[in-house]
Structure formats: C-alpha cells, structure tokens
C-alpha cells in the first residue's frame, strides 16, 4: 500500500489508498498536472473558462453510496455531467440541468458547491483552454431512460473509490473521495 498522510494534521488518510491501483493513479495525476502547467499563468490571472458540474449519487440496496460517471462525447474519458453556465439559472440549477441532459438524472442539487476541479477543455476548433468546474452534489431521486443525450455517452454507477480511479483529474478524484468520506459518517 502506498502511504499517504495529511501534511497538516499528520494523520494517515490511507482510506483513499486502499484501492490496489491508488499509487499508479497518483503517478497519472502527476502527469495530468504537468499538462496543466503551461496554463498556470492563465489560471492565476482568471483566464480559465467556468463550467458547472454535478456529482450525482444514490444509495444502493446494501446502503453503500454510488456515484454516477459518464463518458465524454469526444474522447470517451470518464467524468461527471458538466457544462457551461446557463443564463437565468443559478449554478446549482445549471448542475441539475446538465445531469438531466447528459444522464437522465432527476433530483435536487445542493445550493452550496462541494468544490472545484480544473481540466483542459477541448473546444470545437481543437484548441484547449483551462476550465474550472464548480461542482455540486445531486441526490438522485429518479433516473429516466429517455433524456437529450441518450446514446451519446456511457453511464456507470460506481463506488466513489472506483469512480476516483477512472477519472483523470486529481481534484475530481479528491471530490469523489470526499463523497466516500461523507457516506461513512
């Protein structure tokens, strides 16, 4: 097992490292952060695009929390439902809309953001731009089989640990693990 300690409290937070591939995932995170490095100046000057996302969650029949991941339409990588802010909608409402359009999720999002993650958004012209995603928790009340982007993406319900393993963005991995930590309370 890969050791991992909170540098401020000195406490072992190995809950996050119990997955057998966690160390490999952290090495991938380093490579991912290296891709963001050329955009650091733009990020620091507020030059990043702003997006809204939702971590959709439910409790399965055993009482364990599961989170929803979807694939992107272009590259097929795993992520959460997300998109651009929507005029006349508050951020948590935009997160609700994105989860509905991309995964058929019905339910209310928390009004307060869970956190943020950064990634490189590929635009229609092939250019990349840093994007900061404001993430809201959304409890799933109902899942519809018909929704606007049905058939364009894969959808998977996973444990927070498995979801964190599948996504590329280190900050999103942390937000998914926070869902696990909160479910253990």
Concise structural overview:
The protein is of the alpha+beta class and 185 residues long. The chain is built from five helices and nine strands, in the order H-H-E-E-E-E-H-E-E-E-E-E-H-H.
Descriptive tags:
endopolyphosphatase activity; Nucleoside Triphosphate Pyrophosphohydrolase; NUDIX_hydrolase-like_dom_sf; globular; 7-stranded mixed beta sheet; 185 residues; metal ion binding; bis(5'-adenosyl)-pentaphosphatase activity; alpha+beta
How are the secondary structure elements laid out?
Blueprint: H1 22-36, H2 40-44, E1 49-59, E2 65-71, E3 78-79, E4 82-83, H3 91-103, E5 105-106, E6 115-122, E7 128-139, E8 142-143, E9 155-158, H4 160-166, H5 170-183
Parallel strand pairs: 1-7
Antiparallel strand pairs: 1-2, 1-4, 2-3, 2-9, 5-8, 6-7
Organism: Rhizobium meliloti
InterPro entries: DDP-like_NUDIX (IPR047198), NUDIX_hydrolase-like_dom_sf (IPR015797), NUDIX_hydrolase_dom (IPR000086)
Cofactor: Mg(2+)
What count of helical segments does DSSP give? 5
**H-E order:** HHEEEEHEEEEEHH
At CATH level 3, the topology is: Nucleoside Triphosphate Pyrophosphohydrolase
Ends apart, CA distance between termini? 24 Å
Structurally, how many domains make up the residues? Answer: 1
Contiguous uncertain segments of 5+ residues: 1-19
Major sheet, described briefly? 7 strands, mixed
GO molecular function, one term: endopolyphosphatase activity
Domain Nudix hydrolase: 49-180
Keywords: Hydrolase, Magnesium, Metal-binding
Cofactor: Mg(2+)
